[in-house]
Amino acid sequence: NQIVALTAPSATSAWTAKSNVAWITVAAASASGTGSASISYSVAANTGTTARTGTLTIAGLSFTVTQAAATCSYGLQAGSETATGFTLSVITPNGCDWTAVSNTPSWLTIKSGATGNGNGTVTVTVQGNTGTSQRTGSLTVAGWTVEVTEPASATAHTMRMLSKLQ
Description:
Layout: E1 2-6, E2 14-19, E3 24-26, E4 32-34, E5 37-43, E6 52-58, E7 61-67, E8 75-82, E9 85-91, E10 97-102, E11 108-112, E12 115-117, E13 120-126, E14 135-141, E15 144-150, E16 158-164
Antiparallel strand pairs: 1-5, 2-4, 2-6, 3-5, 6-7, 8-9, 9-13, 10-12, 10-14, 11-13, 14-15, 15-16
């Protein structure tokens, strides 16, 4: 909740206060009155990725409110898994861009979802390991490092999310 101090020219000066945007709400007790007063209003959280500006009209004068954009934060969740690949879900607000990149493109391939905006799915293809040694590779998805390990001479694999880049 925020407050705007209104100084009226006299105790009998009538005034009204209203918001000109849906995300700013003038408290019912502050919608109209006479004389000097404290006008109370509240601002809904900005879930978008751009700053926004709205106005209140108080006693015929405009009062501007500017609200910063929400910061982009990224979550990653393991999805379905098969012998030949897996999916990852990226969880982030709309307007937040992200990328998915294989750091081991010789056997880990981004099949779909290499870029996105807001929530999305990354599909990864894992080529079977025909070698005699276990191998480990990684992906970077929305700033997260995902490690994938395959045992020798196998098509099975395991994955784990290691860390989020800062």
